[in-house]
Design a protein that fits this description.
By secondary structure, this protein is mainly alpha-helical. The protein has a single domain, classed as Hydantoin permease, CATH 1.10.4160. Strand 1 and strand 2 form a beta hairpin. Helix 6 crosses helix 22 and helix 10 packs antiparallel against helix 18. It is globular.
Length: 494
């Protein structure tokens, strides 16, 4: 006989929900969004480390140094420092927002129900989902190019397909990504664990190939592309904010992964080991490889897929492209599909299951890349480049998510004091449908950030967008909650 009321039990600081009919029959619940059982939380610190190695070693990370030197006016040394500092900084919200996922086994959208409301959580979820779908499309474009170059190295006739071959590669890689995520969290865990050492080997191999053709002293001495005598502070701050924005999205939905961690210690150590150093080293590799590309292949090439495609040996091209396909797959599945899959389910859990949500994510990502795909097929002509989309819109848009990170941290640690009503997050009778404190705290800094774009006096507010947004969002949410605490703010039920 099915129990009517849900029960919550604790084992070694981890909470588990025995769902009764009050939760099972709720429109806010489905099996995929349910809290993980304690026995399902099997990811240790090395699995978490492998997750970050798999996500950080990707084509966009490789190009970060070039983005900072070309678009943000930094020297090579300043660019690499900005990348290192940014990833140390972003560890703070990543680790803090991972805590409730590990403790309660809940994904990001369910956690947001505490600070934005049961229904209101859908707004920040869909904002986050759109960013992820954009990144999914871009990564799939790189993966499709790698497949095209792989097949071109094996079959001579494939090279003649040109852009059509790239589009076919895109669709093959697109389908492969969706298949991995539909198979579930264990597939992602093993993909990341197996791919991490392979990706490290790729990096070492590329470095050995490039080093004889580049002078590090000359590379570090290249002057910055900014006005002579200009202060480095404002340029460095803008670059730092953009680099924090690179993982700002994951700092929100890290509970989607930490819900599988064995303990808080595992998620903390795994993230510390896996993120900052991997990002710094692979971005450094990108800087070195780009500098060496002129001597290696005769032209400056800023992405590894195209660079390796210039190698004359079909065997080495095929091997390298196979490894890049694995690298891009490991990044894309974890960083860009898991989150929107959960976010779309949150809209209507009884109607949208994981498989439907994965397919929806794929279709949105495909739609966002339709312009680029039509260009490759020769059906349209346009000057809009993928690099422009990557370096401007997505990084800037990601920085606007700072307020959500600040609100989440303040709500869980300061307002709820790490105590959530686990069953109540899946029902309509504990937390409000719309929690307007969250929307006010999110809306004010976003509005100020957008207004600062047209003001020289307040341009710093945009330049430091993620920092100003997360700090102001958290402060406003805390102030509103203290002045007028909601019933759930003082609950101690777990």
């Amino acid at each position: 006989m099915q129990q009517i009321r849900s029960q919550v039990t604790e084992r070694d600081g981890l909470f588990e929900l025995e769902a009764g009919s009050d939760v099972l029959d709720s429109p806010r619940y489905n099996h995929d969004m349910a809290p993980t059982k304690v026995h399902e939380r099997t990811w240790n610190k090395w699995h978490i480390t492998a997750l970050w190695v798999g996500m950080a070693i990707c084509v966009p990370t490789y190009t970060l140094g070039g983005v900072l030197t070309a678009y943000f006016g930094l020297t090579v040394g300043e660019a690499l420092l900005a990348i290192l500092f940014a990833n140390i900084i972003v560890l703070i919200p990543l680790t803090l927002n991972a805590f409730p996922g590990t403790k309660y086994g809940i994904p990001f959208p369910v956690l947001l129900r505490s600070s934005f409301g049961i229904l209101g959580s859908n707004i920040p979820c869909l904002i986050r989902a759109l960013v992820a779908c954009g990144w999914f499309g871009i990564q799939t474009m790189f993966g499709g190019l790698a497949i095209h170059l792989f097949l071109g190295s094996v079959f001579d006739d494939w090279k003649a397909l040109g852009g059509t071959g790239e589009v076919i590669g895109f669709m093959v890689f697109w389908a492969l990504n969706l298949w991995v995520v539909i198979r579930g969290a264990d597939s992602i865990k093993w993909l990341e664990t197996l791919s991490a050492p392979l990706l490290v080997l790729v990096g070492v191999g590329l470095l050995m190939w490039a080093m004889p053709n580049v002078s590090m002293s000359e590379l570090m001495a290249i002057p910055a592309k900014r006005p002579e005598g200009a202060s480095v502070v404002s340029y460095f701050a803008a670059g730092l904010t953009a680099m924090v924005g690179f993982w700002a999205t994951l700092s929100l939905n890290i509970p989607d992964f930490s819900r599988y961690a064995r303990s808080q210690k595992d998620q903390i150590i795994g993230q510390i080991i896996g993120l900052p150093l991997t990002m710094f080293l692979f971005a450094s590799l990108g800087v070195v490889m780009t500098a060496a590309s002129v001597k290696l292949v005769g032209v400056t090439v800023s992405d590894p897929v195209t660079l390796i495609g210039h190698i004359q040996s079909p065997v080495w091209v095929a091997l390298a492209m196979a490894l890049i396909i694995i690298a891009t797959l490991s990044t894309n599945t974890a960083a860009n599909i898991v989150s929107p899959t959960n976010d779309f389910q949150n809209v209507a859990p009884k109607i949208i299951n994981r498989t439907k949500a994965v397919i929806l994510t794929g279709l949105v990502g495909l739609a966002l890349m339709a312009h680029e795909l039509l260009k490759k097929l020769g059906l349209i002509v346009s000057d809009l480049s993928l690099e422009t989309v990557y370096s401007n819109w997505l990084l800037g848009y990601s920085s606007l998510l700072g307020p959500i990170a600040g609100i989440m941290v303040v709500d869980y640690f300061l307002i709820k004091k790490q105590q959530l009503d686990l069953a109540g997050l899946y029902r309509d009778d504990v937390y409000p449908a719309w929690h307007w404190f969250g929307f006010i705290a999110f809306g004010v800094p976003v509005a100020l950030t957008l207004l600062s774009l047209g003001s020289d006096a307040f341009s710093w507010f945009y330049s430091y967008g993620w920092f100003t947004g997360s700090a102001l969002g958290g402060l406003i949410y805390y102030g509103l909650s203290v002045m007028r605490p909601s019933p759930t703010a003082v609950k101690t039920a777990v």
